[in-house]
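Continuing the series of single-chain predictions for the mutant panel. This is the parent chain; the variants come on the following pages.
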Amino acid sequence: KVGVLPRESSEWDVTLRGQEEITDDFNLFMARLNEHQAISAACHTRAHAHYVMKNSYGYAFIDTIGIGCYWRGVSPDYFTVFKVKGADGTSPEEMTERAKEPGVAILTADLAEKLLNAGNDEKKSHHVATEILGKRITADKGAKYAYLVNGICEPQKFNETTIYYPARYQIMQYGKNNNYVDYSSISDVDVY
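Parent structure:
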């Protein structure tokens, strides 16, 4: 059972709570969902809803090579909740474990293939795109923060009627790496 504090409540004063407190509350909410006996797994996303036309667009760079792709902020359990397998047949649960490492990204196989093939004469299929595992990618050319590629998932569609499109999954672990939830950003977060 989830309760909502009405705006009329004397406790509903958004100026009294900082990002850390709001983030702690959100993490507690997610933990309670995951512990509930009727729920096998729960996840949250930011600027992405699986298969329903909600994505953000960005880039993935390795060194100076950048490829346009969808950016999908997800929690580690996303792969279990939506049954997203690894490109090599890895189970969704194993993809979730790979996503739990701090500072990682998961790429779709088609994005991994495009990043490896950019500027190369000898094209590599996504079946050998595992060479990208362990490399660091950034969202912008020359960005200071880089994400470690810790998994490659099967190609994903925008929705059931569209083509596959490259995507990078940035793992959102609130409370780590200065990544917080606040009242201005919480409306971008969806829970499944």
